[in-house]
Fold each of these.
Amino acid sequence: MKRRQLLFTLGGAFVGIPIIVSLIYDAITKSKASSISQSPSSAPKFENTSSPNLADANSEISLDTTEEPLLRFAAIADNGFGSPDQFAVAKSMWETYQQKPYAFVLMAGDNIYPYGEIKLAKAYFEEPYAPLLKENVQFYAVLGNHDIIKSNNGMDQINYKLFNMGDRYYSFTKGDVREGTVEFFALDTNNNAPWEAQLAWLDRQLTKSTAPWKIVYGHHPLYSSGRHGGDRELVAKLAPIFAKHKVPLYLCGHDHGYERSIPLDGTIYIVNGGGGAPLYKFGKSPQTAFVSPQFSFMTFDVYQDKIITKAIATDGKVFDRAIITKA
Ligand SMILES: [Fe+2]
């Protein structure tokens, strides 16, 4: 059995074992807002309601606001499994949308298990998200490791209209008509990606960008306490570019669960891989601000001066919130 197949099979052993960190959830609901501010020059200020042990250095920023955001979007990853858990997350996404509509969804890879075959897109993508697609909510995908196995190295997904990709890596802006409120940079983080060209492109595009907010996403984590863990090579490739351009947020999946990091050289790293594939066990690392492997998705409320992030479970409850502000 190939290693990739073995991992996939092992993943199946975790079906139906939602590793709910209820103690942590209790800590969220009971804790007072607190905050951290790290890495002096380039760090965004950061408020955290889920880690009550963090220093309270930013208490003037409130998570509770009635102000409408400039832009609201959602994010999922590791979702295309066709499982009841994927449908449960999709249902929660739809119920959240009905209360607070979001314009689009970032889909951070492993869009179609197990081999990325586009013939499964109907069952593993169009059906679970049918209500959202009917409302014309757009999905912006990147390629996960599963997406390039039997899909002409991902080209079938790149050419699939509903994934809105256009290429292996791409950028797009949303929000304000002229400048965009946020510019998104979607990466191919697979080993066989055209890394040299992609990194040069990312550096160039971030330099050129006039958007007030710049967010990067890709499938693989730089930092993670899940089964796959972090990736030093990815850190070496991407972290200096993030620091140079003050990218406040990198979103990914691959490890099936939720983990948010403290700011590392100004960037917060969020693993958001609870979209429907079997969950993994997570540990805790020095960079962990909050971890809870459960089936979930995220929403982001973007304001001029802050982004409020929410991780939302299948019951619609928010189990992690944070504020990201600019450096
Ligand atoms: Fe993956």
Amino acid sequence: MLIKRRNFLQLMGLAALPVPTWAGQLFLKSQGEFIPLRNNVGIFTERGGTIAWLINQDGVAVVDTQFPENAKNCIDRIKEETSSPFKLLFNTHHHGDHSGGNIAFKGMVEKVIAHENSKANQERVAKDRNSEDTQLYPDTLFSDTLSQKLGNETVTLRYFGPAHTDGDAIIHFENANVVHMGDLVFNRRFPYIDKSSGASVQNWIKVLSKTRKTFDKDTIYVFGHSDNGYKITGTHEDLKAKEQFLKNLLKFVKKSKKAGKTLEQLVEQTQAIPGSPEWKGNGIQRPLGAAWEEIGG
Ligand SMILES: [Zn+2]
């Protein structure tokens, strides 16, 4: 590998350059995957929640931003495709792996758009963590629905109530018929359920059901995260499976509580939620704990 690199540098007539940063960059190149989905809409995955992009003659729109260094890689990658200006930035919700890279778009986009609760959550968490100077907050907020036009595409945001947090936007690229679900779907992976930001398992089930009724069978859904071997995009069926997982979770925790178990015992003894064995990975304590808190008593 080293020999190859030296040969390459010599070949390029660059062997005499001060090597460290330049050569380093060769190998630190973005690991992000840039994947077109339909029309001019696609996704970028590197680290953190999936980014969606729209590129057309009038401009570029982006949904979610991962972390600052990944956002920068995504911006660079999009610039390889187009010279259109960056215009709109949307956040599905406030979590740092979705909005942490907003700062990379500072001064670059005309609007940063999110649900009103998402902005409030982002501000609260940033104040708590003393990280306000690294945030770019939304400046355009909505409560129920909001539409933005960009060239021949219309992007519509909807809010169906608390679920993963109390500020989850469902973002629809109407002509491409692609919907970014944010963290409303962790595809076959134990979800984080952010009770400190107003999450609700019971309402999450309703949100997914309403989503399936709102969009048609041709819709491509983009998910915030997926477990190894599972796709980061999907269909109605994946939403239905997630809905079923949440139903099974509530049922199981209710039953265990009734049987006199403690949360500690439940976490220790549970490998999978009965009825939803596909959901796995680390962190079963997160859904168990959230459901436990919600059921109360
Ligand atoms: Zn999240």
